[in-house]
Every structure is written in C-alpha cells, then in structure tokens.
Amino acid sequence: MSFISRGFRGKRRDVASSSRVPPGQHVVDDFPVLSAGPTPRIPVSEWKFVVEGEIDQPRSWTWDEFRKLPAEHVTKDIHCVTKWTKLDTAWTGVSVDTIMEGVETAAEYIMAFSYGGYTTNLPLEDLTGGKAWVAYEFDGQPLHPEHGGPARLLVPHLYFWKSAKWVQGLRLVNEDQPGFWESNGYNMYGDPWREQRYWGD
Amino acid sequence: MSSRGPRLLIWQLGEVAELVPQTPRVSSLVLDVPAWPGHLAGQHVDVRLTADDGYQAQRSYSIASAPEDPHLEITVERLEDGEVSPYLVGEVRKGDKVELRGPIGGYFVWTAGDPRPLLLVAGGSGVVPLMSMIRHREHTGSSNPTRLLYSSRSYEDIIYRDELDRLAAGGDGLTVAHTLTRMQPQGWQGYARRIDADMLSEVGWPKAEMPAVFVCGPTPMVESVASTLVDMGYDPASIKTERFGATGG
After folding, report:
1. What phi-psi label fits residue A139: left (phi over 0), alpha (psi between -120 and 50 degrees) or beta?
2. Does any domain span residue B205?
3. How far from the centroid of its chain's Cα atoms is residue A138's Cα?
4. Å from B156 to nearest chain A CA?
5. Domain with B88 in it: what CATH number?
6. What is the residue-level pLDDT of chain B in tens, covering all 249 positions?
7. A132 CB contacts (<8 Å, ≥6 apart)?
8. 3-class state of residue A64 by DSSP
9. How far is CA B211 from the centre of its chain?
10. DSSP string, A34-47
11. B2 Cβ partners below 8 Å, 6+ apart?
12. What is the rounded CA–CA span in Å between residue A8 and residue B54?
C-alpha cells in the first residue's frame, strides 16, 4: 500500500465478522434504502410473476399461486455497492430452482425486470443451484415496498442491485445485455469479493 | 463526454486546496485532481482512506462542483459515529491528499441542454448533488426555469446559503424556497414544516409543465416527497431520487 491517509486510524471491526465483509464494505445494523425513483406500489391482487423469453412455455403465477409454491427460509449476508454490508438477513421466498424446475432453455442469461421499469442482468447459473430466491418476507414480515415488496429477487452472492426490487419476472436471453445500473456505470457481473463495482473493475 | 463511456475508474490522489466550513457539521473539500476525467452534474466519487497498517475504509460522496469547475468539490456532513466523515471534517487539512475514484453514476444527472423545467428538492446535505446542477446551470449561462425547495433543520444548517441567495437574486430563472423544520430565526418568512403536498404545489411546477425532478435527502424525506409527487400526478419516470441514511459514515 503506497498511499497512507495522514492521521487516519479508522474504526476497527471485530475479527469474527471481518472474514464475512468484502473489500471496501462496512457493516451496518439498519437497512438502508436505495432506489433511483419513486417506490412503485403494486397491490398483490394485480401482482404477477412470469418467466419468459427463450422458453417454449412461458410461466406465470398470480400472488396466490406463487404463495403456494414451496417456501424456503434463508439467512444471508447482503452487500450493497454503496459500501454497506448487512449480516444475517432473514428472508422467506421461493427458490429460483423451484421457479425454473423442468425448464429447458438454451439461454445462458437472465434479464430480471421489475414493476416500475427496473432491469438487471445475470448469468442464469448465478440464479440456480440454491443461489437465488424470489423473496416476499424479511424478518418474518411481509416485505415492505421500500425494500422491494411485494417481492424482490434475492441473489446474495452478488452486489445487492442485482437483487431486483419489485420483481415482475425473469426473461431468458441468449446474450448478456446490460440492465439499468449496468448501463449507468455499474459492473455487468458485480461480485463483491472481487470488488466488481463499476465498469472495468 | 468521457464519463459516459465504459472505462476503468482508477484510484487517484486529490490534494486539498481549500477547506470551506459550510455549517457547524458540514465542510466542503476543494480538491486539485490532476487527472480528473470530468463528470456530469449529480454524479459522485468514492473516497478511500488508508491507515498506516493498511486498514482501509471507503465511502461515496456527491460531487458539489460544476463540471466546468477546474476543482473537484465534495461536501461532507460529519456523522459523529461515522468512520470516514469525521476524518474528512475535522482531521483533514489543506495540503493533505485524499484518494478517490470516479465519477460514478449515470442516472441521477442533469445537463444544461435538457429543455424541461427543473424541480430540485433537497433535504439537508442532499443539496450537494443538486448544487452541482445549479452551478452547472450558472456556468453554462442557462436560463432554464429552475426551482429549488430545500429543507434544513435550522437556519444555521443551510448549506450554501449565501451562494444560493446570490444565485437566486440573479434573475435568470432560479428560485430558491427554504423550509426550516426544527428551529426558525425570528421573523423567518419561509416555510417551517416538513415538505408536504401543499408546499410542493406552491413551489413546484404544474405537472402539465412536465418538469424534470431530482430529489435527494434522507430516505424518509425522499420516500415522502417522491410518493407525494406521484400522488399529485407527476410521471414517476420523470422523478429521479438519491437517498442516504445514517450509514454514510
């Protein structure tokens, strides 16, 4: 390390959790809200979740149908590109493995899209194999609209902008195209452990 | 502009050319950054501090200076339980170097060519990226109709008070309305409550004017203002938000 900030010591975190904190991140106890525009309000009576794109039979669930899918309870650390990390967050939702069960597709990428127009791109293999959920509860309570309710994507091993709030569906695509933040300076993949925050990282 | 194209954001050193106290808890750092690639009004930078044992901490700060300004200015609110802000506001002196990279963010930005009237709504230090837009407007000689509604706790907490007064007196289409939510000086003529629908309709543009709206401040304020504007019939797609919580550090 060549440059030293004169007079900076910093607040050291305890050693136990530091192995769970990616480079450049710091642990918070609250749950900050970040989004680019007004919070969309989606009544569950109008909510639908779809899987479409490179798939023979597009899939679609109403809220009631979706809630009947097998639910999983997971506790994960989440990492926001704005530098905060929140440890041990508790979610309830449906595994993307369940959502994609039996789907045959040649597509290797997903564009997740949301009510309100948000999009984010991910490799399909980052959503399957027990790595991603469509979550509708946080800490045992219905997910608040500020945090993406009725339901949001949860992909905790990538920076949290990949966990699309207000998610409406997954579009299977053959080519990796940038989503909303990926078109606005942020990394196409977003691995917090490799600190892939921005273009070129 | 270079800040729009894919490219590597490298860490570089800026030298503190000037420290400008703005309020009891807020200071501006005016930085010389020799290799600064340029930015758009509304973007931010990442600041990285390194202790002598290699320990590092990073935070993001909005850019306050106009793209046309030869210096890069960030304006930082000192959070008492923070890690980086007490260093930037309190420890840093003129001549010190600060490691940074940017500019970051391509959405919460405004350029003077945008023909829509502008509504800027700020809470506390949320005024900082909006100040970059106002300064950019001034630098380019734009007379774009622009209204700033700015909520502060008290008169002493208003950041850029004198500069905003001066710019608003310029008669080129910028108006500034303040609201002071906790304490008001004697004889205060401005608003004295949290921003609400009545205030937004008095200060803002009729929705038929299709303004571009930028809202920046603490999350509850941004949530409330953005929701109120949507309820008033503004197009959600025309409202851009940036939020900070108590975690800016």
Report:
1. left
2. yes
3. 13
4. 27
5. 2.40.30.10
6. 444 455 689 999 999 999 999 999 999 999 999 999 999 999 999 999 999 999 999 999 999 999 999 999 999 999 988 999 999 999 999 999 999 999 999 999 999 999 999 999 999 999 999 999 999 999 999 999 999 999 999 999 999 999 999 999 999 999 999 999 999 999 999 999 999 999 999 999 999 999 999 999 999 999 999 999 999 999 999 999 998 754 444
7. A95, A96, A126, A153, A154, A155
8. helix
9. 19
10. --SSPPP---TTT-
11. B37, B38
12. 11
Residue closest to B133 by CA, chosen among B40, B241, B45 = B40
Q: Are residues B142 and B69 in the same domain?
A: no
Tokens of A63: 């809220």
Structural domain contains residue B112: no
Structure tokens at A175: 């080519």
- Interface ipTM above 0.90: yes
pTM, two decimals, is: 0.94
Q: Closest partner residue to B87 among A8, A30, A82, by Cβ?
A: A8
Which neighbouring-strand residues pair with A93? A72, A135
User: Quick one: which H or E segment has residue B100?
Assistant: strand B97-104
Angle formed by the axes of helices B161-168 and B127-139, nearest 10° = 40
**By C-alpha distance, which of B122, B109, B13 is closest to A36?**
B109
- CA-closest candidate to residue B91, choices B101, B75, B78, B102: B78
- Mind listing the domains of chain A with CATH numbers? 40-194 (3.90.420.10)
Q: Which two structure tokens, joined as six digits, stand for A132?
A: 């991603």
Residues B239 and B122 in one domain: yes
Amino acid symbol at B240: K
Residues B58 and B81 in one domain: yes
Task: Count other Cβ atoms within 10 Å, centred on residue B188.
Answer: 14
Asked if B59 and B125 sit in the same domain, the reply is no
Tokens standing for residue B188: 């205060």
Say if the Cβ atoms of A38 and B227 lie within 8 Å: yes
Q: Which positions in chain A have a beta carbon within 8 angstroms of at least one beta carbon in chain B?
A: 1, 3-12, 23-26, 28, 30, 32-40, 82-84, 116-117, 146, 180-181, 183-185, 197-201
Q: Which two tokens stand for residue A33?
A: 């809200």
In A, which residues are within 8 Å of B40 by CB distance?
A: none
Residue B63 in tokens:
């850019």
Q: How many domains does chain B have?
A: 2
**Which candidate, A88, A78, A89, places its Cα nearest to that of A190?**
A78
Parent domain of B197: 118-244
Task: Say which DSSP state B79 is in.
Answer: P
Question: Is the distance from CB of B74 to CB of B54 less than 8 angstroms?
Answer: no
